[in-house]
Amino acid sequence: MEKKKSWWQQPGLRIAGALILLILLGGAVGGVYYTQTPPEQPIQFPHSLHVGIGAKCQYCHTGAATGPTAGLPSPSKCWGCHQQVQVKSPELDKLAAFVKAGNSIPWVPVAIQPDFVHFNHRPHIAAGVACETCHGDVSKMTVAEPQSGQNMGWCLDCHKRMAPEKWARLSDCATCHY
Ligand code: HEC
Ligand code: HEC
Ligand code: HEC
Ligand code: HEC
Ligand code: HEC
User: Fold this and answer.
1) Domain residue spans in the chain?
2) pTM (two decimals)
3) Nearest bound ligand to CA 71?
């Protein structure tokens, strides 16, 4: 006869235990690993300046309201303004060089989750969550700065707070991992 397994060998409990550990560690470790230092970008794109002249987030990140990814503007969108804005600067010379060569700009991702996480912008924008809630005050940044502590606990905390009536679905593993 098979020997009865002790409680910590029961698969269900071990998963539950692992999850609790994960959430605790995730909170503690996440904060240490991620810094707010932005990576080196091919052009020092000043968000502050562009948001300051009235460009809306979704004018450049057009996918946010309609799909999973927000997207980045193409060089031709930059050029639509910059072939008219007559300002000389080393950063704009770089932009002109990308446009002239017909190359896309190799921006380094900043706001990024692991591949096994499925995030979708659309339901968040539809629910009225502001970009700033998750990405920080971008209107005061040059290039985008990574935000710390955006782990699983962060997603779940907000789901519980903002949509308690939908908690069953918004905490279901398959909603974010599949
Ligand atoms: C509820 C939190 C949340 C809100 C609100 C939010 N984002 Fe995001 N955003 C994320 C997360 C999480 C990622 C990383 C997604 C990934 O790697 O799969 C991301 C990634 C991005 C990216 C890079 C990848 C991509 O999707 O193109 C851009 C650009 C972006 N967001 C812009 C915006 C803008 C603009 C808004 C407002 C219109 C916005 N986000 C609102 C959480 C949010
Ligand atoms: C809606 C029009 C518009 C779009 C689109 C736009 N820009 Fe600009 N950009 C401006 C204006 C206006 C200025 C301010 C020029 C000045 O200093 O008077 C500016 C300034 C800049 C500067 C700072 C120049 C300096 O003083 O060093 C950089 C760099 C820049 N833009 C890059 C970009 C890039 C890259 C894109 C595309 C991702 C882009 N811009 C898209 C209008 C735009
Ligand atoms: C004129 C175009 C423009 C506007 C307006 C603009 N952005 Fe961006 N955004 C960019 C470009 C170009 C990048 C890539 C360089 C960087 O990471 O800063 C970027 C990067 C980002 C990223 C990181 C994307 C990644 O790949 O990880 C986030 C988040 C973001 N923007 C949010 C915002 C928010 C929020 C607003 C409004 C407050 C905004 N942006 C307005 C052009 C724009
Ligand atoms: C600031 C609050 C907030 C944060 C942070 C947040 N969410 Fe959400 N999320 C919401 C709200 C509000 C909804 C929409 C609930 C509704 O349908 O009314 C939602 C909906 C979703 C949905 C759609 C569920 C469905 O109905 O199919 C997914 C998927 C999701 N979130 C994933 C994530 C992930 C992954 C993260 C973390 C990387 C995250 N969310 C972080 C507030 C948040
Ligand atoms: C609202 C979205 C959301 C839900 C629901 C969710 N997760 Fe996650 N999960 C995340 C995010 C975001 C990460 C990656 C960030 C991190 O390190 O915490 C993650 C990471 C993980 C990891 C990997 C941790 C690591 O350190 O590599 C595991 C395992 C995991 N989740 C299991 C689960 C299980 C099991 C459930 C259901 C009980 C679940 N998740 C429900 C968003 C979610």
Assistant:
1) 40-147
2) 0.91
3) 1
